[in-house]
Structure formats: structure tokens, C-alpha cells
Specification:
2 domains, single chain, 3 helices
């Protein structure tokens, strides 16, 4: 595998350094942080109870957003 030399700011370097594990290269950090994740990796993180609560909160937010958008649309008519 080839290599590329890049220039980053001190702030960016410090940001990467925070995520760096012992014995991990900066390339490893960048690959880990930029890897595409599968939704399957999230399976089992929430209990059924917490998943139901999250679903209910999301539905409540969706309803409030819909009402707000309808009110805004009515004002624009």
C-alpha cells in the first residue's frame, strides 16, 4: 500500500491525537473515524423498553414538526 504526505493544522492534529489509541497509527485513526458504518452495528444497543421510548419521542417530534410546518404553510397562503 502506498503512502501520501499531508499537511494538517495543529488543531486538526490535536483533534486526531485525542482519538488515537496506544499502538495505533494516525492512518489507523483516520481509517477508523472515516469508515462507513452499517446499521447492523447498532443492533442490540438499546433495550426494547428504551427503543420504544425513543420511537415514541421521535413520533412526538415528527407530529410537532408537522403541525409547525402546517402552521407556517397556512401563514404563507
Amino acid at each position: 500500500m502506498g503512502t501520501k504526505c499531508i499537511t494538517i493544522t495543529e488543531k486538526a492534529y490535536t483533534g486526531l491525537e485525542i482519538y488515537k489509541e496506544p499502538k495505533e497509527s494516525f492512518s489507523d485513526v483516520i481509517n477508523r473515524l472515516t469508515a462507513k458504518k452499517s446499521l447492523l452495528e447498532l443492533a442490540g444497543i438499546l433495550s426494547h423498553k428504551n427503543a420504544d421510548l425513543l420511537r415514541k419521542h421521535r413520533e412526538d417530534i415528527d407530529k410537532r414538526m408537522r403541525r409547525s410546518m402546517e402552521k407556517t404553510a397556512a401563514k404563507l397562503k
